[in-house]
Amino acid sequence: MFSEDDLLPISALQHLRFCERQWGLIHLEHQWEENRLTAEGRLLHDRVHESGTEARPNLIVARGLYLQCLRLGLAGQADAVEFQRAQSDSEDSVTLRERQGKWRPFPVEYKRGRPKADPFDEIQLCAQALCLEEMFGVPLAVGALFYGQTRRRVDVRFDPRLRIETETLCHRMHELYALGVTPSAQYAKKCERCSLMGRCLPRAPSGEGAVARYLKSALRLREPIE
After folding, report:
1. One domain for residues 54 and 115
2. Nearest CA among 49, 9, 15, 48 for reference residue 32
3. Distances (CA, A) of 66 to 79, 134, 137, 190, 197
4. Which of 2, 32, 117, 119 has the smallest set of CB atoms within 10 Å of its CB?
């Protein structure tokens, strides 16, 4: 169980799942480089959070809700949590202040692009669900991702596989944070779409002796020709 002083951002899980070095540059060294994609994503989240709370007869939408999970050491802000009216005897629903009846929490995360092959978005949404489960004391079975490019929702089921992957990543994040050392660079094709590529320099020489070999080679090239 973590204290509130030890909580790490839910959003950092996406960085860690994409690349441990990217996570270290952002969350240990506090480096950031915005590009068109990150700017569009930030503006989308800002617009969602500024929309406020919406209430209908069978639906309440809370935007920008603070989340935390002491068990996994997470904290963050949900884009939106829908509270859908449920049956009075429903075991996965909660009571809300100044609202009659029972309501089922349903997290919704907004993304600027389209669904991805890797489960970056699903892991972030599952982490939000785990926070809500601890906060409200009820199980959550499903949430949704809304993609701005397709203008469609994709339902995400919080099955055991996704839960295990999310919790494993949380433990790894706290392990790396405790070490306090940014992982070394390893070039991969995905580096080309990383906004921090210019700071990370994944193609630069790395590893023990790499700098010495580079200097030796550079000096050799500068030797006078007899």
Report:
1. yes
2. 15
3. 10, 13, 16, 31, 31
4. 117
